[in-house]
Write a structure and sequence with these properties.
single chain; alpha/beta; three-stranded antiparallel β-sheet; globular
């Protein structure tokens, strides 16, 4: 039998999806599964986007330009200006989801053996994209006890070597919901400037910031304009995960030229998705406001509910629609699998993402889970009851 690649062997399985077969078997047994494991909003896509999909008037579904349809990129310029992010259409490259934007930024910026520094817990696929590029992620743990605040900047500096090429942040953060403060962003800026690093900034959750403090984009940081690579996606803000439309934004002309080579090799981003996404930018303001308010209510409801369960703790997330929660269990991987394989309460169970999958430091996240509050409050209420009953019945409980 031919040997598969080492790259494939070391590619991590998705902590969000690796338990899907167990969830599917539970459903086949007639059990209702509450999906708290994945950031798939249950809120409707903007009607204006759905209308665009229904009324595509083309005789040929052609290739789009490798960097995306110009009218869409021009529309995005107007969108970003609302957040005081000043870019031109030529600074924007449309990608097949935010995932491709991360992958292409790594391929264009990093050589095999190069290193990037990432606070953890972090979105698990960052590691997969780094492996694809032959690069290494060096993680810096943040703690649930400190609300997942940015680790001391001196700890970042201690990790920098001659192979360090960048720092990657997700702001607001997936999986923690943490929102970096102005002070923290300025500390990152100073480090990026001092060592002339790239700053990869995943900002796909910018609409969902639940604090009175101003939202700080990497593009707001003065003096590092050519160092910033901004990652974006329409998936979350418009409930359009399935159309696979993201963006890579940079003012670095040499970097853009490099990224475009990878874009041309894959030909073009999805045509239909771009048409839908472009129309969705004109969604009425009450659509985004309604979505925002719904997540604010769900956040309070879920965090209050988790923290009322004996032995459980979750800090209050200030952005996105996730939280990391500590549970009174010996092993969250085993507990999450057990909930799907061996537990049900009144024909129901819960599906959560084990926390260990968001860390690379061995042993971290062992009693943590990521919970996505993407279900309506009625379902969240039932899920919390089921979680409480599961913790009472779990053989490996520590309380």
């Amino acid at each position: 039998m031919p040997k598969i690649s080492n790259r494939g062997e070391i590619m991590p399985a998705s902590p969000i999806r690796k338990l899907v077969p167990l969830a599917n078997k539970a459903k086949q047994r007639g059990i209702k599964v509450y999906h708290l494991n994945i950031g798939q909003p249950d809120l409707p896509t903007p009607e204006i986007g759905l209308e665009a999909a229904r009324h595509i008037d083309r005789k040929i579904l052609e290739y789009s330009p490798s960097d995306g349809i110009l009218s869409f990129r021009e529309k995005l310029v107007e969108y970003y200006a609302k957040f005081n992010i000043q870019v031109d259409a030529d600074d924007i490259i449309i990608t097949t989801g935010g995932s491709e934007a991360v992958l292409f930024s790594f391929l264009a910026c990093l050589d095999p053996g190069d290193e990037i520094i990432v606070p953890e817990p972090a979105y698990a696929n960052y590691m997969a994209f780094a492996i694809s590029a032959g690069a290494t992620i060096k993680t810096l743990p943040s703690s649930i006890e400190e609300g997942f605040a940015l680790p001391a900047i001196e700890k970042f500096e201690a990790l920098i070597t001659e192979r360090t090429r960048g720092i990657l942040i997700c702001n607001p953060n997936n999986p923690t919901g943490y929102l970096y403060t102005q002070k923290e962003m300025h500390q990152i800026r100073d480090l990026v400037k001092k060592y002339d690093l790239f700053l990869f900034s995943d900002e796909v959750y910018r609409e969902f910031c639940y604090t009175g403090a101003p939202y700080i984009s990497a593009f707001h940081l003065k003096g590092i304009e050519d160092n910033v690579v901004l990652i974006d996606s329409v998936s979350k803000r418009y409930s359009e995960c399935g159309i696979r439309i993201g963006a890579l934004i940079t003012k670095n002309k040499e970097l853009k030229k490099n990224v475009m080579k990878f874009c041309q090799a894959r030909l073009s981003p999805p045509l239909i998705g771009q048409l839908i996404a472009e129309a969705s930018i004109d969604a009425p303001s009450d659509y985004l406001l309604g979505t925002y308010n719904e997540y604010v209510e769900r956040r309070k409801f879920l965090i209050d509910g988790i923290n009322r369960i004996p032995g459980c703790y979750s800090p209050i997330p200030m952005g996105a629609f996730y939280t990391m929660a500590k549970l009174p269990v010996d092993d969250a991987d085993k507990f999450c699998a057990w909930c799907l394989e061996h537990f049900e309460y009144k024909g129901q169970t819960v599906f959560m993402a084990p926390g260990s999958g968001f860390y690379t430091t061995p042993g971290l996240g062992k009693n943590e889970v990521r919970v996505a509050y993407v279900l309506k409050k009625e379902d969240l209420a039932n899920a919390l009851i089921v979680l409480s009953k599961a913790l009472e019945a779990y053989p490996g409980k520590t309380l």
